[in-house]
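In the design runs reported in the main text, the only information available to the sequence generator was the tokenized backbone. The following block is the verbatim input for one such run; it is reproduced so that readers can re-run the procedure and compare outputs position by position.
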């Protein structure tokens, strides 16, 4: 077994930062998530470039994008979009199934909305009961957070 050394409270105070400190440089936070079956990267790029055009053009702006932590669909596309821009930081809020087995998605959605200035939802509507999309939208509406909801054009 390796050796350990106790850290004093003074040392911890010097090393720790609050969440406010961590994100103090952020000028706008956008929560984005949607269907795992969404396949249109170009649509995601166009919507994000259009909706965030003012923020992207600001000289010192840093945009924080929160995605839903899924490896496929909209969340993966948002991470691709963000990786192609210098002034966009990404945070992934994956559902915490081990902590909330019955309500992980809803709790994650509410956390995303509470930490965001606005919300965008992309719903492929392949599954009529896509809880992730409808719950994220509902959380934004209930908290009066601006929200935009998108579906593929052929389904509207």
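Verbatim output:
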């Amino acid at each position: 077994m390796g050796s350990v050394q106790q850290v004093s409270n003074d040392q911890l105070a010097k090393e720790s930062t609050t969440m406010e400190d961590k994100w103090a440089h952020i000028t706008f936070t956008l929560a984005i998530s949607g269907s795992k079956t969404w396949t249109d990267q170009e649509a995601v790029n166009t919507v994000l470039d259009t909706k965030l055009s003012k923020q992207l053009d600001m000289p010192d702006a840093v945009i924080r994008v929160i995605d839903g932590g899924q490896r496929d669909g909209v969340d993966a596309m948002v991470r691709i979009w963000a990786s192609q821009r210098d002034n966009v930081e990404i945070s992934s809020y994956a559902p915490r199934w081990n902590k909330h087995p019955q309500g992980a998605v809803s709790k994650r959605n509410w956390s995303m909305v509470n930490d965001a200035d606005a919300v965008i939802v992309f719903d492929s509507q392949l599954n009529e009961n896509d809880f992730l999309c409808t719950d994220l939208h509902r959380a934004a509406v209930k908290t009066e957070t601006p929200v935009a909801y998108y579906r593929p054009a052929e389904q509207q």
